[in-house]
Amino acid sequence: MKLLKKLNLSERIESKEKYRKRLQKLQLELLRFQRQILDSRRSIIMVFEGPDAAGKGGIIKRVTEKLDPRMLRVDSIGKPTPEEHQRHYMWRFWTRLPDRGHIAIFDRSWYGRVLVERVEGFATKEEWKRAYSEICEFERQLADDGAVFLKFYVHISKEEQLRRFNKRAADPYKHWKITPEDWRNRRKWDRHNEAAEDMFEETSTRHAPWHLISGEYKWHARVATLKQIVLRLREEYGN
User: Fold this and answer.
1) 125-143 pLDDT per residue, tens
2) What are phi and psi of 202, to 5 degrees?
3) Rounded to whole angstroms, how far apart are CA atoms 82 and 96?
4) Domain limits at 194?
5) What pLDDT digit, counting tens, does each position of 67-120 carry?
6) pTM as predicted
7) CA dist 151 to 84, 100, 173, 189, Å?
8) Collapsed DSSP state (helix, strand, coil) of residue 72
9) What span, in angstroms and rounded, lies between the C-alpha atoms of 168 and 177?
């Protein structure tokens, strides 16, 4: 089943007033859960993946902006450092895991092994295929220890990505957001989507399922993500 093709990219929130009301209500509920998370001594691990310019950063900002920053960490994952490159690819993520009762958010993650590293040839076929079981075991160990996983893949159309790329390139205040690497990744759009579909199939588990979010309209994406987080926390901690 090709999940990305089935994703409804037309969902949107029509008015700014509705968007603000829904966003604020969900942010407040998430803030209330933060104390329960701390008292429970269980960590929350959120993972965000998706194409360049899909809106992951904007979603993360709305998830975190009303929370107590003392119990929160956001990591934006780029290329491994020379020190990290000399170790197993999962090493640098073990060192970033949250304390008990805290929240960790990963903007890109260990899934780079089966996404960009696969597509760009930074990992061999044997390495990225083996990574599916390694990642599932990593997440299972953490879930068995009490961690709550929320994994989001934020998707947009190729046309919308081009519009956002051009907008960034033309804006002197956002020009830094667009790099030659972004344009190179775009030329491999279909291969990145194929890798994502395989990732969903191989790594969406009972304790760490994937949630696909339409990022075509930013207001919808932010509210939909926060709603999914709140629903999961209600399951774990009650209303």
Assistant:
1) 999 999 999 999 999 999 9
2) -90, -20
3) 17
4) 3-237
5) 999 999 999 999 999 999 999 999 999 999 999 999 999 999 999 999 999 999
6) 0.97
7) 24, 19, 30, 21
8) strand
9) 7
